[in-house]
Amino acid sequence: MSEPAIRLAGVGKRYPPREPGVAPLDLLIELDLTVARGEFLAIEGQSGSGKSTLLHLLGGLDRDFIGEVRVLGCDLSALSDQELAALRHAQIGFVFQSFNLLPGLSALENVLLPDFFGEGVPDAERRAREALARVGLADKGQSPPAALSGGERQRVAIARALLARPPLLLADEPTGNLDAQTGEGVISLFRELHQEGMTLLIVTHEARVSHAADRVMVLREGRLAAEPGSKHPLESE
Ligand SMILES: Nc1ncnc2c1ncn2[C@@H]1O[C@H](COP(=O)(O)OP(=O)(O)O)[C@@H](O)[C@H]1O
Ligand SMILES: [Mg+2]
Q1: Distance of CA 125 from the midpoint of ligand 1 (Å)
Q2: Which end of the chain has less neighbouring CB within 10 Å, N or C?
Q3: Does residue 1 belong to any structural domain of this protein?
Q4: How does pLDDT run across 80-90, given as a tens digit for each residue?
Q5: Nearest bound ligand to CA 43?
Q6: How close is the Cα of 177 to the center of ligand 2, in Å?
Q7: Bridge partner list, 74
Q8: What is the pLDDT of residues 4-49, one digit of tens each?
Q9: Rounded to an integer, what distance in angstroms lies between the CA atom of residue 47 and that of residue 231?
């Protein structure tokens, strides 16, 4: 059998203090998690609980962590920067909380961005048009982000994440900025992708997203630095 889509063991992240004299912030200590291939997992957590931090580790966007992160059979810490970039490019679709669309580009060009990086995407332009049609924006390819509604921007961001047809999609509060009806559209798109066999991990603070998932987990508030005197898991020898 192939490895699960995601396996985390003893994962933690330390953020340096934002101001001198303040303790560093330790998050996700001893976080263990396995996500099966083809599973749709929602992780709920309040603001500040570490959801974005977790997704950035899983998506290979932040390499500064302790513990083991395995994605699609690869130990992320063991990969070179180049190998990690290749994995991200071909296998991981990432939908950012703030969409991250480039304002100077059209919707279609934004969807095509992954093609400009790394090894490119075969038949990129056709796939980009298909991806836009897929999210219901076939006629908006020439529109710049500023001319699109919040829901449309989010769908452009999802189309971009789908361009390389990755087996794994990570999404950071994808309905956080959307009204109820637009949010429903995005959620049904996720359900469709799941039915087609994609593995989805979505972090959210919205129950309506969790309802669509196979499984829901809760991320508790990010743990703060250890109390004085106690040995902390992130403390080096
Ligand atoms: N670059 C950073 N430097 C220091 N602290 C950070 C940084 N990014 C996030 N944090 C802190 O880590 C905690 C978790 O943040 P985040 O993962 O963004 O949570 P969530 O996405 O669940 O709202 C928050 O308390 C946040 O202030
Ligand atoms: Mg966040």
Answers
A1: 36
A2: C
A3: no
A4: 999 999 999 99
A5: 1
A6: 12
A7: 71
A8: 999 998 888 888 888 888 888 888 877 888 899 999 999 988 888 8
A9: 27
